[in-house]
């Protein structure tokens, strides 16, 4: 399970580029026309600064929060992302690595464009992936030197923090997540074991 940690902001207004990326993601889930989805995305979206994966999982911070409150903490903004790119009868998992930029809580209204997703809440992650050619750094020595275009994905696709080691003008990824259990997200359950941050 994943728990959101504060501080949070309830007045964040995504710019045009971010709204388009959210719309493209929601279209994959809901279907319909991109222009109608874009027009009905809420103007104000709540953002959160951190998340924690329960049952021994990692505590992960957005890069926006890390840059704002930078101190002696280690950089825990780089993550392992896992997607199901297969069908219902033919599951196929793809691995990607990147930096978590923002955590977005997108609450859809009652407009017809949302179909049976009306009044639903989607917890999304804005991620800047790195180019690794699909390699699994937990089993293969994996490097990157290039960031790709930002993406929006479901926060449940974030599985763990990974480390980075700079060497010869590129970065090696340190992924110790072999055997890590899959997680699920419970948006309204409170964690009672962290007194430093508000949670949702």
Backbone structural class = mainly beta
What letter string, H or E per element, gives the SSE order? EHHEEHEEEEEEEE
End-to-end CA span = 12 Å
The number of strands is: 11
Radius of gyration: 17 Å
The coarse overall form would be globular
Largest sheet: 8 strands, antiparallel
Number of domains: 1
Describe the structure.
The chain has 200 residues and is mainly beta. It has one domain. The protein is built from 3 helices and 11 strands, in the order βααββαββββββββ. Strands 1, 2, 3, 4, 5, 6, 8 and 9 form an 8-stranded antiparallel β-sheet that branches. The chain has a 3-stranded antiparallel β-sheet with strand order 7-11-10, with no helix packed on it. The model is unreliable at 179-196 (pLDDT under 50).
Write the layout of secondary structure elements.
Blueprint: E1 2-12, H1 16-30, H2 34-40, E2 45-53, E3 59-61, H3 63-68, E4 78-84, E5 93-107, E6 121-129, E7 143-144, E8 151-154, E9 158-161, E10 163-167, E11 170-174
Antiparallel strand pairs: 1-2, 2-3, 2-5, 4-5, 4-9, 5-6, 6-8, 7-11, 10-11
Helix pairs in contact: 1-2
Short overview:
The chain is 14% helix and 37% strand.
What distinguishing features does this structure have?
200 residues, 3-stranded antiparallel β-sheet, 3 helices, globular, 8-stranded antiparallel β-sheet, mainly beta
């Amino acid at each position: 399970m994943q728990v959101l940690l504060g501080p949070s902001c309830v007045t964040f207004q995504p710019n045009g580029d971010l709204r388009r990326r959210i719309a493209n993601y929601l279209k994959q889930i809901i279907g319909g026309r991109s222009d109608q989805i874009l027009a009905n995305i809420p103007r104000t979206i709540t953002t959160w600064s951190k998340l924690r994966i329960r049952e021994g999982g990692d505590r992960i911070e957005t890069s926006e929060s890390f840059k704002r409150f930078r101190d002696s903490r280690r950089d825990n903004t780089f993550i392992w992302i896992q997607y199901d790119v297969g069908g219902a009868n033919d599951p196929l998992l793809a691995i990607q690595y990147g930096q978590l930029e923002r955590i977005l809580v997108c609450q859809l209204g009652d407009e017809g464009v949302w179909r049976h997703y009306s009044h639903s809440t989607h917890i999304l992650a804005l991620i800047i992936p790195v180019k690794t050619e699909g390699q699994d750094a937990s089993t293969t020595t994996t490097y990157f030197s290039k960031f790709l275009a930002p993406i929006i994905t479901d926060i449940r696709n974030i599985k763990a923090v990974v480390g980075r080691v700079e060497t010869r003008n590129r970065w090696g990824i340190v992924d110790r997540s072999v055997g890590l259990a899959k997680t699920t997200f419970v948006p309204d359950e409170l964690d009672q074991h962290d007194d430093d941050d508000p949670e949702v």
